[in-house]
Fold each of these.
Amino acid sequence: MRHNHYLFIFLGSFVLLCMLSISLSFYANPYGVRFSQEKHDIYNYFGGTRTAKAIHIQEGSYDAFILGSSRSEIGIDPTHALWGGLSTYNASLAGSNFVETYKVFQTVIQQKKPKLIVLALDYSLFSGARSTSGDFNLSRFEDSNSSFSSFFKEHLSKDSIEKSFRALKYSIKGLPPKHYQGQKNGSLTFTKVINENGQHHLVFNTIFKKVITNSEAYPQEGFSSSRINLLKELVKYCSDQKIQLIIFISPVHALQLMTFKQIGIWENFLSWKKELSNISDTYPETPIYDFTDFSAFISEEVPSNASDTTMQWFWETSHYKNTLGNLILNRILTLDGGDLSTPFGSKLNQENIHSELTKQRLNLDLYEQKHEALLNHVKALIKESR
């Protein structure tokens, strides 16, 4: 009888703790879940997690989606006026690969047929060495998860409890949310680091840690053909279902492209673009824009080590600001391709791909000649990494 008494106390305590945890998650709402059918803004402190974005896609009602990596998550504004009357959600995932992107796409089309998908591509998405995150495997994006496991992850897991307490703390302090409509706040992400160490330090720290020593994102063996095939499946589905699809290659700073050449993956990068142009030839209704075409925007000057100035278009070499993202939207969402005095973005197809790649090789050579100090700095970092 005594054992039964203790068992009853244990079970009662366990049920109470579960109820408290569930209540806390609903009250703090760390993932920004909609609790009614009324349309309202989605903002929260932890919206960049796979868990949150899967919930938003499944429980929201959107006409358009942005798919991609952290570059488009930070740089592309889903609330910009150029989307017109479309309700747009930024479903881009930081640190992802194209397997994840494809599963996000599958989640989107399972809900309802979208009117528009804007797909932002990065070369690193197609690295065969880049694995799928544990957070993704536990989210609703992974269709092998049951309703129970998803509920546990979102309301009863250690991760959800920690996020609930942190969301409460941040809300009480009146701190701004990190995500709005799925877009990560770049200013919150980078400004503090820039103010402490300067943008020059952030730029070369990114080059060293995210490019030179990041063999998972930028392996020597090149891009994965199986992930290219997933892209072809995505494009074919949109073509068959008459879903408007716009593809663009996210801009990176010219310094990062120069680093690609120095670590030996520049030609692989160009070959990847050629593969994309083949897709455009098969599906001419799907435009593919390249924003790594050595425009004045991606070649803006990197602040010197002693300078307290910051770049206008980039946070560092990998992530671009909303200011540049808005120019991308102006280019891809307007009929005239945007009214820019300085050209930005090239449309890739089989007719122009060879001339485009030849031009980009030449422009990279010219960039290296004009920026010898930056080139030597990159070479020194590569030597340091070995």
Amino acid sequence: MNSPNNSKRFASFRLLVVDDVHPVLFDRLSHIPDLECVYRPNFSATEVYAHLFDFDGLLLRSKIILDAPCLSALPRLKLIARAGAGLDNIDQSAALAQGITLLHAGEGNRIAVAEHVVGMLLGLLNRIPQSDAQVRSGIWDREGNRGRQMRGLTAGIVGFGNNGSATAALLGHLGCRVLAYDKYVHGFSSEGIHECALEHLLQQADIVSLHIPLSTETRSWVDHAFLHHCLKQPILVNASRGDIVVLEDAVAALESGRLRGACLDVLPVEDPQKWDNILMSRLFALPNVVVSPHIAGWSTESYQSISEVLANKLSDFFCNFQG
């Protein structure tokens, strides 16, 4: 294999890498003969689309959307690998029907996501963002910033994949009673983690944490009707995808007290220039909300781990690739 900056002109398999990845990825793939990696992390979306016709594989994060019409125009494409969790920017049914192999690295950032979720929850429960801001402005208010312990709370995990299971384990270690629901995974109950129906989870949970992929089934799933079933005024956590939650309904639930708080690492619109300013002003006026810019799985360690996981999967793919 050629180094990313010194590629051969011709090779048996050409892989276009259009997002920043850890160098360990190229190190791990260096033993594969006849593989040409072309590393173009600075490509714009337009440039990616323009060059894809010349490649057998694509490695990306979220730079472009690969829908059915786009994929049908790429008959040479045999592989799409995503350096992250999930494949929601790819029409998976169309890709698989076209014989394209899909890979992602959902295992690579599970610890980072779990720790970030717990960090947001601890910050919210202990009023850390507010008290920090107050102290910086000369206000010393101990009683007004009395916190709440996490131990003894019931945490409801919706989705028991890589990130959900890691978050459940960490919350369990902190003394939470953990309930978990997954529509497609069953039989995962263990000591301290109890599999249950979604209705039971929403009735019992003090924390409802979302760890599900974005799909036609889950888009706008957490709406007014969903939140109406939350009986204990829980804290809503979303570290999955912003479009799963109807933000206006969540803000209304926070304003009415249906939700005790929210920890949001993702939003339906992640470009501040395109925000609904009225809705966002309502959200940011709430003292019981913690927001971060889609960084739950974005730690220094997960940056390397994602590339390691994906490199292993790519190695397996190329070992079995028949051309």
Amino acid sequence: MIVDILILSSIFDFSADLVTQNLEKRELRYLRLNKENLSEYRITVIPDEILMKIECIEGTFIVDDNVHSVWFRQPIFLRNTPGETLTVKEQLVRSQWTAFLRSLSIFKNAMWMNWPESTYLAETKAFQLMQAHKLGFRTPKTKIGNNVKEFIGFNQDVIIKSLDTVLLREGDDCLFTYSTIESPNNFRDEEVYEAPLTVQEYISPKTDIRVTVVGNKLFAVKITSEGAGIKEDWRILNKGKLEYTDIDLPDEINNLCFRLVKELGLNFGAIDFIESNGKYIFIEINPTGEWGWLNTPERKIDTCIADWLAGDL
């Protein structure tokens, strides 16, 4: 079968499940490759022909220079640190399949959501904050590094964040970090110097807003609990206590969102804002951000992405 839509994903990707179900209903010619199962296929890439052949139980699939779109859902670099030492073979297998995914950039004439190079750069927090500020977004005062003396200079409570998503394994446990409110006076050099941090001014009161941009469509949702903004990182609250409400943002903010996504070379972006005293402050953008938890029959992000991949948007 000739493939029109190629999806690079994971077996644990609920958002990808929603979109593939949508594509199946339309009887579109798509192929989903999950990174965990790549060795189960027999794959051949021929660079000078801009061609990839995939043999599997379902048959033979052909991806060529006419493939319409590629949905790149996986980060370019590995975040999941194993809880035990990998064998030499396991290290080799992981590194070479990671390089293989980069090889699929030969299909550069396809519409990408999102192009790997753009994804890598857009995930860099310092770069996205610089671009957002340059375009005209309000951004929080931010310092990145391991110099405690600089952090103490905030003279107010701050938000501590990792530079990149932290997803670690310790035995059978999966460890994840959240944003933390802290006083700079509690920083100690011996606790900070080994790894850099992102430290931002804490803005209060605040209401969290998630904006999901898909092509020329935008979904804006405010996140509250019992009708009010959430002081801490809203992700640590029980999901049953969270409310997601569609909102209309000022045209200026909508336009800035579209401009930022375009400036970063993306076709999809999950943007986090906070609203404080009538002002909208940019926090970050995630080029492979999750949105499945926001999807509803009234807020059809899955349909919007399927439309984009099919060329109907």
Amino acid sequence: MPEPRHVYDLTLPDWEAWVQAQSQPAYRARQIWEGLYRHLWARPEDFSTLPKSLRAALAREFVFQRLTPEQEQVSQDGETHKTLFRLPDGPVVETVRMRYIRRRTLCISTQSGCAMGCVFCATGQLGLLRHLSPGEIVEQVLYYARWLRGQGERVTHIVVMGMGEPFHNYDATLQALDTLNHPAGFNLGARRVTISTVGLVPRIRQFAREGRQYNLAVSLHAADDELRQRLIPVARRWPLADLMDAVRDYIARTHRRVTFEWALIRDVNDTPDQARKLARLLRGMLAHVNLIPLNPTPGYEGRASPRERARAFCAVLEEAGVPCTVRLRRGIDIQAGCGQLAGQALGPRPRFLVGSRWEN
């Protein structure tokens, strides 16, 4: 008997083909889709709009849960909530909910671990354990969507900035986001979604060609190749000239602003020289810089830039006409901040991407 499929891995056309194979009318596919993503039903028996035989087929052929929540943590201020999920084959991923005055933002993961090896990132220090499927990405959102619905609230924004490099798992990530964006289901607006990449140039170009309306953020962290390649090993494959050319192509095609993320590391990349180089790199570009004082991780000795140095860095950019903000750090006490997600890292030996080859 075939292995049951994950119910959230299917697209709406997949459901249309499935109900046809069940000798059911085509509108049943839309009922299933609405049940999953509008009503947030989580069990076959919840689908009261379907005949009993179709509910039985759902129970027989699909699983509704692949992520098992094992640990929940809430920050001292109560504004950040982190969940550690166990995958069926052993590895873990983490997802974060952040509460703002008018927003309920989820930071979701696309991989367990990460192959990019950024030296200051706890996830990068793990190496790649495995990619998530589209359904495993979607399930993180639905888990919190149900919880928020119970509070009379809803998910307002998603940032794809959790564990993993989204563009390294490109197809699964974009299928998951398209599912969540679908107007007949979860219906989260594309402009409420931000995808963060460390700078995989071919995928940025593909993303630009496809014309989706999700926001793009690029983790830059240095304004010259020598420093960037020390901080982000995968940058050896795509130097800054190639990366910035791809970003300009994205802006020209989409007319969308790009956010550049910069983890401020004291005496490493928070100097006036780096600020001036960054200003020259971005001058005239439809861009915004998001400065993030470094969050501590066990595998990196660097320290966060103090607030006055962050403000001075930002002032250099603003004087050159480059918009800039210093992000408020959230969830640091529960290791839920940017670059801190690592889970318990159980599973197979991680792999790292070095040039075009994998190494253990």
